[in-house]
Amino acid sequence: MTGLRVWIWLAAAGASAGALALLSVSIKNDPFPSQDRTVLDRVSGWDFPGLEGYFEFSSMLTDSWALVGFGLAGFAFLWFSRLRRQATAYLFGGVIVALLALAGDYAIGNAVGRSSPAVDGSATSFPSGHVFGGTVAVGLLIFLAAHYRLERVLLVPLIVLSSVIAISAGLARIHSQVHWPSDVAAGYLLAALWLLVLVPLTLGIEKAGWVPPPPAECPLRLDMLKKRRRTEGVR
Fold first, then answer.
1. What's the CA gap between 130 and 180, in Å, rounded?
2. Does this model's pTM top 0.85?
3. Is 71 part of a structural domain of the chain?
4. For residue 43, is it within any domain?
C-alpha cells in the first residue's frame, strides 16, 4: 500500500481502534447504560411473523461450527480453483488467526467484565463473539472471492448474502437478549479492526513472494462449469 491508500487505511484502523477503546472504557465505567436498555427493549419486542426463526437461523450461521464451515468454504474455493499453495497457506493462516482472535476476544471480555441481559448471563458478554467471528469470516470470504477475481455474477450475490448474514447476526443477538446492543457494536468494531489488519497482511505476504499472486482470470468460472456439465452429458 502506498500514498493515499496508506492514509485511508490508517484513518480506518485508527477510527475502529479508537471507537472500540472508548466503548470498552465507557462500558467498564457504566456496564448498563440507559441507551443499551432502550435499544434492547425495542429490538427484543419485535414480533413479526417468522422473525424469531430467521434470527435463530442467523445465530446458527455465526456459531463456532458454522464459522469453521465458512473457513472451509474459502479453502475449498482456492483448492478447486487449482490454487493449492494458496489454499494451504490460507488453512494454516486461518487457524493461527482464529486462535489469536479468540484470545483477543477473551481478553477484552475479561477486562470489561460485563454480564449479558439474560438472567443466567455470563461475565464475558462484551464483545459479541458471534458478531465478531461471523463478520470476520464473511469479510475474509468476500475478500478472497474478489481478490481471486470471482465473476461478478457470483461475487455480487455473495457480497449481498454475506452482508445480510453479518447484520442479521447482530440483530439476532439483541433480539434474543443474549447480548446488549453495545456488545454487538463492539463485535463489529473488533471485526473491522481485524479485517483491516488481515487484508493488508495477506497482500504483503503475496508481495513478498511467500504466496503466489492470484491468476489473471479466476479458474472457477461459470463457463467452465457449464462446459463440464455438457461434457458429462455427452458421456
1. 13
2. no
3. yes
4. no
Contacts of 20 (CB under 8 A, 6+ apart): 186, 189, 190, 193
What nine digits make up the cell of 78?
A: 482456492
What is the extent of the structural domain holding 58? Answer: 50-234
Question: Where do we find the cell 468494531?
Answer: 189
DSSP-assigned letters across all residues of 67-114: HHHHHHHHHHHHHHTT-HHHHHHHHHHHHHHHHHHHHHHHHHHHHH--
pLDDT (tens digit, 9 = 90+) per residue, 136-159?
888 888 888 888 777 888 888 889
Q: How many domains does the chain have?
A: 1
pLDDT < 50 stretches in the chain: 225-226, 228-229, 231-235
- Residue 215 DSSP symbol: P
21 within some domain: no
In a domain, 66, yes or no: yes
Give the separation between CA 42 and CA 76, rounded to whole angstroms: 41
